[in-house]
User: Which sequence fits this backbone?
């Protein structure tokens, strides 16, 4: 059972307590939720801590960090999922990074990126997201395959570029061009020339969110382009 005082357990936010319970389940090889909660009620008898631990267990189930054991008749039989074990090994930042990408990124890149994050291939997820942006810019601007990378972004959003918003002031036009060119240079180019490792998974998630923002800008760009 957790080696934390009752008042500390009761005061912890449900996610932080959930991570502590997750580590405890792994270290004690606990497989029965009922027995674990029974132990909590005995250890923290007369306090709110036992109920807090029950909330944490419910949170772990809701986030798919633990699940019901297949083949067992009892709903109390649980195991720590693949995601749960990775979170326990890599730390909460892995969980929070994946949470950011659940339903919060542009549909055009979500299907390509989320599977990479779920298996811990963060750099491939960022690469796929920025590649999708490049492909869409090329298609919307009518460019051939010979125009690539930063050069593509500068031509697409330059003063005479096909994706430049003529109704925007010059500063916004320049800013949009710089945003796309800079994001590509920083987030996509390095992965195309050398191995890139994201030691900070939160940084990788934010890179994907940047690509998602670019996609949403492209949505507005496509909406104002003349219809074929």
Assistant:
């Amino acid at each position: 059972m957790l080696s934390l005082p009752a008042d500390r357990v009761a005061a912890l936010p449900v996610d932080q307590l959930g991570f502590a319970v997750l580590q405890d389940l792994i270290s004690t090889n606990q497989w029965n939720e009922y027995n674990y909660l029974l132990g909590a009620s005995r250890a923290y008898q007369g306090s709110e801590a036992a109920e807090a631990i029950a909330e944490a267990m419910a949170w772990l189930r809701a986030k798919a960090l633990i699940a019901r054991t297949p083949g067992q008749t009892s709903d109390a039989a649980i195991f720590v999922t693949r995601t749960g074990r990775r979170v326990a090994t890599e730390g909460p930042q892995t969980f929070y990074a994946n949470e950011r990408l659940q339903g919060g990124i542009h549909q055009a890149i979500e299907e390509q990126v989320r599977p990479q994050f779920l298996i811990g291939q963060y750099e491939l997820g960022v690469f796929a997201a920025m590649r999708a942006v490049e492909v869409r810019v090329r298609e919307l601007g009518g460019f051939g395959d010979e125009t690539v990378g930063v050069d593509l972004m500068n031509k697409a959003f330059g003063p005479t570029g096909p994706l430049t918003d003529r109704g925007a002031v010059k500063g916004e036009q320049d800013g949009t061009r710089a945003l796309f060119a800079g994001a590509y240079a920083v987030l996509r180019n390095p992965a195309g020339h050398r191995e890139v490792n994201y030691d900070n998974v939160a940084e990788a998630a934010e890179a994907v969110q940047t690509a998602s923002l670019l996609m949403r800008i492209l949505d507005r760009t496509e909406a104002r382009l003349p219809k074929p």
